[in-house]
Amino acid sequence: MNRMPALYIGHGAPPLLDDPVWSGQLAAWAQDLPRPKAILIVSAHWESAPVMLSATPAPLVYDFGGFAPRYYQMTYETPDATALAARVAAMMPASEPVHQQSSRGLDHGAWVPLKIMYPDADIPVLQMSLPTDDPVKLMELGARLRPLRDEGVLIIGSGFLTHGLPFLTEWRIDAAVPGWSSDFDAWAGEALARGDVDALADYRHQAPGLPYAHPTVEHYTPLFVTLGAATTPDEPGLQVIDGFWMGLSKRSLQVA
Fold it and tell me: Which one, 18, 82, 130, 201, has least CB within 10 Å?
């Protein structure tokens, strides 16, 4: 089997499911990818150390508020991913054992985009927690996971390239883009185009728009799991999706 790519995607809130533009981009992207045997996804919405793995299968996590009732009734019942969980656990060093959650299913950072990308829910999905915000350690984690790509596993870091929710003033999909969001997006897009992993990792000192673009960093840091899983992390990836959603950057990346 050919090596699967690794992705960093913006996942959006549940209303993404009703946005024909972005959901169309995600669906078309998935169609262009080789079909994965399984999916391992790291979402901004599960920060936990040591590394945790989701239960498989388990009910979805509806970790959002204030949306229409129908979003809380959605399901995404995927096949058992126990075999992938065992494989991932075996890849971790003895000094960093992985813990399997007995009841936690996929949160919206996982199931919302996957519901668009793989609507038939016929691929096993395992979610891994985000154990740190240290880019170097996250790249090391991604590197450990890299062999999974040769086994047909699609590795996804799921976040949002800008995520300054407290500073948004409009709540429309086509809202005007704040300067801090466009500035951070342009900086990151240029660094990704250069394959400048060092600059991306040094975002606290180099990136414009902080701390507005990321008052907390968990939507940015899944990028480093993806970069770590790349065959050559400092080789520019393919920026498949760009633009903005509610003023936030939906820029997304595919690495070989």
Answer: 18
